[in-house]
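Minutes, project check-in

Agenda point 3 was the complex the collaborators sent over. CS summarized: four entities, 1557 residues total, and the question is how they sit relative to each other. Sequences were read into the notes so everyone works from the same version.
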Amino acid sequence: MKKMVVGIGVLLCLLLWFSSCGTRIDDAEQPAGTDLLEEEKELVEEGDNYIVVGISQVGSESDWRIACTESLKSTFTQENGYYLIFEDAQQKQENQLKTMRDFILQEVDYIILDPIVETGWDAVLKEAKDAGIPVILVDRQVKVSDESLYTAWVGSDFHSQGVKAGRWLENYLEEQGRGRDKIRIVTLQGTLNSTAQLGRTDGFASVMEEHDNWTMLARRDGDFTQTKGQEVMEDFLNTYPDIDVVVSENDNMTFGAIEAIEAAGKTCGPDGDIIILSFDAGRAALEAMAEGKINADFECNPNLGPEVSRIIQKLELGNQVEKFQYIRETYFDPTMDLESVIEVRTY
Amino acid sequence: MEDNAVLQMRNIHKSFPGVKALSGVDFTLRKGEIHALMGENGAGKSTLIKVLTGVYTKDEGHIYLDGHEKEVQIRSPQEAQKLGISPVYQEITLCPNLSVAENMYIGRTPGAMQNWRKMNKDADKLLKSLDIPAKATQQLSTCSLAVQQMIAIARAVDTDCKVLILDEPTSSLDEQEVEKLFKLMRDLRARGVGIIFVTHFLDQVYEVCDRITVMRDGCLVGEYEIKDLPRVQLVSKMLGKELDDLSDIHGEYKSYEKKEGELPVFEVEGLYSNAGIKPFDFHIDKGEVNGFTGLLGSGRSECVRAIFGADHVLGGKVKKNGKPVKISKPIDAMRQGIGYLPEDRKRDGIVGDLSVRDNIILAQQVLRGFLKPYSKAEADKIADEYIKLLNIKTASADTPIKSLSGGNQQKVILARWLLTHPEYLILDEPTRGIDVGTKVDIQKLVLKLASEGMSVTFISSEMDEMLRTCSRLIVMRDRKVVGELTGSDLNQTSIMSTIAGGDK
Amino acid sequence: MSKGFGSKMKNISDTNLLLTITIVVFFLMYIGAMLFLGEGFLKPQALFNILNANAALIILSCGMSIVMITGGIDISVGGVTALISMCCAVYLDKAGGSVAVSVLIALLIGLGFGLVQGFLVAYLEIQPFIVSLAGMFFARGMTTIVNTEPFNVANEAFVALKNTRIIVPGMGSVNRLGNYVDAYVEIGVIVALLIVILLFCVLKWTKLGRNFYAVGGNSQSALMLGINVKRTKFIAHLLCGILAGVGGFVYFLHVGSGSPSHASGAEMNAIASSIIGGTMLTGGVGNIIGTFFGVLSLSTIQNIVSSAGLDQAWWTGITVAAMLCLFLVIQSVVMAARKKGNVK
Amino acid sequence: MQTNETKKAGASSFLGRMVRKQVMIPLAALLLLFLFNLIVDPSFFKIELGYNSAGNPVLSGFLITILDSGSELAILAIGMTLVTAATGGQDISVGATTAIAGSVLLRVLCGTNSRPETLQAPIIVAFLVACVVAMLFGAFNGVLVAVFKIQPMIATLILYTAGRSIAAWINNNELPVVSDETLTYFGEFIPGIPIPTPFFIAVACMIVIGLVLKFTNLRLYTQAVGINENSSKLNGLNPVFIKILSFVILGLCVAVVGLIKVARISTINYSVIAKDIEMDAILAVALGGNALSGGKFNMTASIIGAYVIQCLTTTLYKFQVRSDALPAYKAIVVIVLVIVSAPVVREKFNAFMAKRKVKEAA
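CS then shared the predicted structure for the full assembly.
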């Protein structure tokens, strides 16, 4: 037993010594030195040829997220000159922290982080900064004491989505000749206090302020889910018999709302009683639009990959980048050629 | 009484609900002797030992230690150990995953810390002094069974024991191991320890013991010096000569007439299994009742288990009506028309929670196959028929079998096999632990079945039963077939002398 | 060395044999990873990161090993950890409590689970699995009753403690900016190491520890040998509960947040670590050092799997289950082989 | 044994007679729950006929909810009862294997495209494939238990952890959505029939198992193996096979549950589908008065037990208990159940009753 304990100790020491040796060689500023093991040589070469990117993704909880992952993965390919290390954090900050530390240890060139929550990132971001690794945030934002801890953020401008929706409604009503009519609106809100909910609600509200004839009958939390959306919509229909517009802050709730409206014997869409505005513009929603059930859908673009890649290329050349980079987003309504849009839709 | 007695038990009574296990048993153990406690199953040996070691509390009687100055009450195994009474059981009651030294000292040294060095030193010293071939630091499971047994003894000895009880310590040891164990026992005897030795092996008794106490049916038969009791007499004392109303049931049934040229129903050549029996040959004719006899542990059950495929058969041939058949699992045997009533009713026979009806139809249902269950009505009819036929006393066919008495449980198992209409029925101790009336019923039934052409192998610890029912006896000793008796040889004397072997 | 190796193999105890297998497997795996995957494994900090991330698991696995050595099992540890994280987080963040009291809360919760489960298993002789399954569900349910949303703790004293780093001298490395970065471990690692050493000593050099082995080896025999089997089992579950308390707090200290989904699957990882570390499911065989290496092996293999490009989330679960299956088979094969050898 | 039995019967003859009818246990629990709801809020029993979005008549109300959502549990209880009876242990991987079965089903229905316009295979084919896969996983559990002699709960712990990951793996972690109406018939309503389809499926399963128990020896074999393995071996049974068979049957039940679960939402969520259902299924078996240590079983009681659990769940939901918090309440029920049925407790209780009787007599 005693021998064993000693043996373990010796082995552990050897392991640590060996590993620190490995790094010392690395540090000796002779990247292709003769002392290097073959494998290490390859690695160094690999490092030279490719830009090594580590991605810590939240998980794969929604279609949007999966599409986002897909976009990132298809951007950072070896053909495009990247070497990608991807880690799925399964909805846990704990895992993301661990992944980040592994990336720092591996000395990747860039870290792309889709943070699951807004807080608790100070320490690890500082470690990355100390290690000289730029961190690019995607989709969600973080709350940190020092904004210089990360290099850039790429994501959707939820506020502008809301504004876009407002403007679209404005135009649409004008075209319909209802510009002066009294318009009664209800909103199915997303999970309260989520970035998307806040942005979309505020954005739409900012347009509303300009129109005295628009009334917001009610705003209720639909939790971004279909079932909850349906429940809330049923309630709305019972309370307010004369709804003109439904603003639904994501597609899932929209589906619920459509069910509720149809169950109540009303119709919706361009030819229906109720105007429906939706956000996200997922494939299923566009199909529903093609069937004439949705008036307009405002895109929340998951194709973040190319934008992130652009930022990295700029950084590689030593250029400055903008801190907040909004992704280009559009909207869809039945006036467009929906079929061809649906065809190429990735999510 | 003797001055050098370390232990005296006087007039011990113990009964369990419905059974008188011990009635007025006396037992004396002297300093420095090896004392064999003999008797067939159910004689009361183990009850006596459990009373002595505090597992059971006696109903009546006195136990004295060190002469008769000191009467003691033994209420728990711990108390018994404190008084210097240490049992070593047949199944090793040590922990196989611990080291030898730990097994010797665990649970009986003071303090919260484990002093390995001291313990190993002490253990090595003790092992050496007892000449046990084991190292203190060895893991127990790496020792042979004999050594493990010895270590258990060493542990017992080290607790300053005066009375060492060895309950069938040799049943799983080979000859050399037994020899080692005996050497240790003799050493201990020389040190003045009184040893109670329970065994079924006669040779061993005569090799190592000084004195024998024989018990039968919960009563003391007598205490003898080893030199005063020849083997044959010992066997006859153990088996007793019970005379009851069955003296001549043979005549009631005509034995089956064997036709010319008829091959044996079953024939076995060189069969042996992983249960430790030596290869044996055996055959049985149509309508014949034969039996395996021998003391408990002689391998008689293992033989029939091998025939039935209940143990893992390692080699040998089985032929039915002259044609070879393959029997590797019980279901094979059943398909060939063999039925087997196992020795341990509770463990291998009854399915306790199931009703009498389900227990009766079980084997036949397995034979009929998965997709052909009896309907409720059929099952009821069959159950009622057999309950009536065998006179099973049960409240209804729905009663769980475990709430029946032993004899009635046995009849249910018997009914189970009769329902399969076997050509060959093996009954292993069908009469054990059941009342005399039922015993007679079962014996009569066996003869009736045989007269109808069924072949039956009947195993019993009771000689009389065997003599009454069997026309041929295969005698076993030490897991070997040592003789076969028929016709006029079928009498107590010859059986006993064959069982005893050695001196006649 | 080679001379008499066979006999040496025969004389080595089951516990030490399985321990050796574990350690050898771990070192082979780690060195293999260093050689072929390089990068992440080539700095000492890689090992320390594994320790940092798994300090809590080490502690939980220690408790699990003890229970398993006595022949029981406790699958509630993950749930208890989540409950502790949530309670402490709520207490620190919403009630503005002190760190010391939160440690106490953690220990009390662990103790509570240990007491109740130990009593039910040891004295009422209910299957440990059912008891701890109920314990697991109870703890998980309670966690969401305490608070449903995940949140980070902002309590300053706590965050300071969480960010405290213990520098390991001489193990640092120079990063690509040319700065020397110290190697460090978190406080939880120190706690875990202390517990490993402490429990190793308890199992090796105290009567209590040896009783655990005896009860697990053969509880009937242990009773005959004069050991209070019920009390021993009770203490084992109690210890496991307390260790779940400590482990729960260390986990909380590492993640710094409360969430109902915290430590999901931790019970499985703890069981897997124990088994990989050479603890037998059947009881009586096992070693805390082995458990320690079991945890390291498990997370190393997970790192290897993700470094090797199997980046999808499901691989983690499948890897753990596969490792568990593999080691169960190794155990049964090795043990069967030994038994065969002994009988002859 | 015998005397013990009679003593018990004597000690509480009335109670004994009541309890002896095993079906009484879950029925009494059900009654208790109904009574509670009747007193607190009789609207629990209200059943309404309404029309759903497709304009079909549907029944709604808490009782319908119980019948509807209890279906999965009732089906699983069937398999779980058999596994419990044969092995004396429980399968805790049913939730995870349900995820696998559902995933396979969707994979076959959707092919390589996660959003197919039309089904890539008939539902029946997909269901059969799911059945085969679920049965294979059941057999895997069974082999670990029967051949390698690992305790059932530990053996199934492997799939309990890996199952949901495997399910995600089968579909490449995509969340396929089936737009075909027919699939929803299995999880919701068939047009024109106001009673939810899962209830019919559950009834069909009950009828099937009823017929199987009537026309095969499954009950006898399983019970014999569960009560006395030695004896059943000597009676020609193959305990290994019977145990694996019980796990395979459970696998079949799991596949059916997977179909219902997937049909309910036309898609799958790997980490949530059939979550914590293993606990409920075990609870159903226990509530049915079946010994968790195996042996005799009463299928009817188990199934009623399942509906009791669902009734409890629905009642708790009605009182605004969050679904995440439910396990805590159920865990308490489990603990109370196992304590009451623990042999040690029973012995003590009987001794206590006997003492009291002696006192009364004196």
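Noted in discussion: Chain D has one domain: 26-326.
Follow-up: revisit at the next meeting once the mutant set is ready.
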